[in-house]
Amino acid sequence: MTDVDVLIVGGGIAGASLAAEIAPNRSVLLVDAEDQCGYHSTGRSAAFWLESYGGPVVAQLSTASRVFLDSPPVDFSGHGFLRTRGDLHISRGDLPELPEGIESRIIERPELEQMVPGIRSEWRRALFEPGCADIDVAGLQSAYLRQFRRSGGTVRPDSRLHSAERIGGRWSAEFQDGSTVSASTLVNAAGAWADQVARAAGVGPLGIAPKRRTMVQLRVGQGGLRDLPLVDDSEGSFYFKGEGDRTIWLSPHDEIDSDPCDAAPDEIDVALAIDRFEKAVDWPIEAVERKWAGLRSFAPDRVPVYGFDPQAAGFFWCAGQGGFGIQSAPAAAKLAASLLLESEPDSMVARVDPAPFSPERFR
Ligand SMILES: Cc1cc2nc3c(=O)[nH]c(=O)nc-3n(C[C@H](O)[C@H](O)[C@H](O)COP(=O)(O)OP(=O)(O)OC[C@H]3O[C@@H](n4cnc5c(N)ncnc54)[C@H](O)[C@@H]3O)c2cc1C
To answer: Which of 221, 211, 139, 153 is nearest to 183 (CA)?
Structure first.
């Protein structure tokens, strides 16, 4: 039987970033059911950092993560992970209200036409968030895994947790291949499977609900799109961003209840995305080049859950990252690490109150 201080179940961005933060202080085993840690939500995101996304509680973590994502410590990465493009919340009527302190400015129709040539006339104005940036998700994920290994941590892919039991003050975990691991702390970073993993350990679920989101890559008859701002409907029915010179990534902003699974796009959502896109701009669609879907998992109040379960000794939640798990990962991992290690929080999160993230709110 392998013996460690901490067993982390789930090697997506949540598990990988927390693993890297605690490995200097604990022996850690990071397991994932798949052969690649980024196979599920982490590898399927739209890859942007948008400070206002997810509301004011989440925005604290996204804001706190910005400097690290932009210019990480040199021993973590020799380059940053962001490329700024800005975001236009376009509107046919009222402009959205952003959480306090987020930089933005109003864009009237003439400027909007310059920023998005071909935008249809009903979109009268927009709120521009200049800080919105693309995130190099694969680069960030692999930098966390590299840092974790350098600190002595072990990653074990192809290892699906089957069950876990608390015996004599430690977790005894059994995997699908029959192998076992003993750990004093079990971290649930299983994304869409978080409630399932809790049940497998005899812990009550929190109601972490996976919801499917669809993405489509379109080739269109319009050039110069690579640096286009992210464009989203302020009423939340679509967003798109330039990918290549004549290609865009588009989502119908769907949020469809799902069981945890290897999510795939439904044709109806692809059609819906295209219909909404055609109502936004007059660019002819030449081809659907790619489509995919992933699961965004939410706690009942849509705030992520970081902390020990008050009803299950040694069981730590790191779940419910919704649609903002990548942009908030650096600060979330620092916050979760201080809760897990019961240590002073890093300066990055010194001003973030951990209470709204605690699993206690559901117990
Ligand atoms: C279409 C889409 C667009 C998005 N866009 C953005 C964006 O622009 N910006 C942003 O910040 N976020 C975005 N997100 C959200 C972001 O992708 C997630 O919040 C984040 O990836 C969640 O990370 P995770 O590690 O919790 O989950 P995952 O990456 O899903 O990792 C969980 C892991 O747990 C493993 N696992 C599950 N059960 C077991 C088990 N029993 N044993 C072992 N391993 C197990 C799985 O194999 C999986 O690899 C988007 C998501 C989607 C789907």
So the answer is: 153
DSSP at 55: -
Task: Summarize pLDDT for 88-109 with one digit per residue, the tens.
Answer: 999 999 999 998 899 999 999 9
Q: Which residues pair with 328 in a beta bridge?
A: none
What's the CA gap between 200 and 211, in Å, rounded?
A: 21
Strand partners, 129: 87
CA 183–ligand 1 middle distance (angstroms): 24
Strand 28-31 and strand 2-9: pairing?
Answer: parallel
Q: Which atom of ligand 1 is nearest to the CA of 324?
A: 11
Pair 337, 316: CB distance under 8 Å: no
pTM given for the model: 0.98
pLDDT band, residue 1 (cuts 50/70/90): confident
> φ, ψ for residue 66 (rounded to 5)?
-55, -50
**3-state secondary structure at position 198:** helix
- What is the CB neighbour count within 10 angstroms for residue 12? 26
Residue closest via CA to ligand 1's atom 27 equals 191
